UniProtKB/TrEMBL annotation:
Single GO MF descriptor: protein-glutamate O-methyltransferase activity
Domain CheR-type methyltransferase, residue spans: 1-254
Protein name: protein-glutamate O-methyltransferase
Catalytic activity: L-glutamyl-[protein] + S-adenosyl-L-methionine = [protein]-L-glutamate 5-O-methyl ester + S-adenosyl-L-homocysteine
Protein species of origin: Alicyclobacillus tolerans
EC numbers, comma separated: 2.1.1.80
Length: 254
């Protein structure tokens, strides 16, 4: 028999096209229940009715589905490892990069900084997320101190204009990035990609959904292209996705 949460999942899918059943149930149910209670709804049936009555709640719900906490050069040693492999990408005149589930933009901007520092070829970065609100924040490129704490003072001066605890990325480090809404579970994936960065996102999905996403990532990559994952997302059998490990949490398309 369908329970309260399963009915909510079904109705939410019909309303938005987003399948919450592909996310890990326990953490998703707990997070959305707590959010609903703060709004005054004690059951998922009440929450579903509220969303039907006020569709703007959908944007707030999307923000609660994942923890949109990021920062520049998070786990910096991993980014240093990626930087050392960027020169192996053979893309001719232009490098095509996809920052998937980019949240508020720290990761695609980090990639852009790396490419400008380590490469001499033209770079184009597609940065996507399911949440339009975080994409708007990403476009603004304004950050607080904790989000830029990996930078030393010289780097802050080089990459940002700042004052009163607001750090605005300089224009030259925003160039070449396009932000776009994208659902990893249902939307078409880009093709001929040299590098995909998707960090600390797969942990939210069921094993079935994660397997689907990884297969589609592999299909998106060029031969010898790179997939850069988060520090909790090690692939135990990367060959399943035509990938091989070349550094911790960094994989290359075979």
């Amino acid at each position: 028999m369908e329970d309260d949460f399963e009915q909510f999942i079904r109705e939410f899918y019909h309303l938005t096209g987003l399948d919450l059943a592909m996310y890990k149930r326990q953490q998703m149910q707990r997070r959305l229940a707590a959010w609903g209670e703060r709004l005054g709804y004690s059951t998922f049936q009440e929450l579903s009715h509220a969303i039907h009555e006020n569709p703007s709640l959908i944007h707030t719900l999307l923000d609660k589905m994942t923890i949109n906490v990021s920062e520049f050069f998070r786990n910096r040693d991993r980014w240093n490892s990626l930087a050392s492999h960027l020169s192996t990408l053979n893309s001719g005149s232009r490098l095509q990069i996809w920052s998937a589930a980019c949240s508020t933009g720290e990761e695609p901007y980090t990639i852009n900084i790396l490419c400008k520092e380590h490469l001499k070829i033209d770079t184009r970065i597609l940065a996507t997320d399911i949440d339009e609100d975080v994409l708007q924040k990403a476009n603004e490129a304004k950050y607080q101190a904790y989000q830029v704490r990996e930078f030393n003072q010289q780097e802050l001066n080089r990459y940002f204009d700042y004052g009163e605890n607001v750090f605005t990325l300089k224009k030259e480090y925003k160039e070449g990035i396009v932000f776009k809404k994208h659902n990893l579970l249902s939307d078409t994936y880009p093709s001929n990609i040299d590098l995909i960065v998707c960090r600390n996102v797969l942990i939210y999905f069921t094993e079935e959904a994660k397997d689907l996403i990884l297969h589609r990532f592999s299909q998106s990559l060029k031969s010898d292209g790179l997939l850069f994952l988060g520090s909790t997302e090690q692939l135990m059998q990367p060959f399943t996705y035509q990938l091989k490990s070349i550094a911790p949490f960094l994989y290359q398309k075979m």
